[in-house]
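Can anyone check this?
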Amino acid sequence: MSLKAVLECKDVGRQFKIGSETVVVLENIDLCINQGEMASIVGASGSGKTTLLNLLAGLDNPSHGEVSMVGQPLRQLNDRKRAALRNGHMGFVFQFHHLLPEFSALENVLMPCRINGYITNEQRDRAKELLDNVGLGQRIQHRPSELSGGERQRVAIARALINRPDFILMDEPTGNLDEATSESVQRLITRLNDSFDTSFIVVTHNQVWARQHPVQFKLSKGKLDKIQ
């Protein structure tokens, strides 16, 4: 049985005009992430990681080449359809959790459902189940100010999973945590990848953690190489 590609880049490049100068940030990027895969992308500051993430999420357009999400070329979609595709098929976890302070952990997890305009009992039950899965079953009514940094990031991970996405992009998800908490969240992400049929694409400076992932890429000077 052939694997389903959830995220693809074909000959993707991104350039920016700064005055009369053309700055090449990414060039000839080829990438394919299949359903259920756990992949890491490592790169130094200035290597183009943020630009690549914006392209993968459909927040920016490449100067050339094609980015496809669950088989749908993003260039063919308007902003509204892109947003709908993201909300239905993609989750995102940032370095900073970006939880809404006035809402409980449960309400924050349900926020992507609220964006769709409604919250069902099934979604509410799933949110509770996800919070239990990330070790916060007893803290679902706590607000972010009542949670530790690691707990807030666990809420953010549960939020990314609420719509049963095909893949989750993670931008330095442990970069703002102390070493012990970071290792705990790393183990959680690996366990969730094993439990759900969801791909995880982790952009990180942590090369020790990155080397533990079955699929590994290195971004350097705008070029992406797969590590064999």
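Reply from J.R.: I decoded it. The mean pLDDT is 87.
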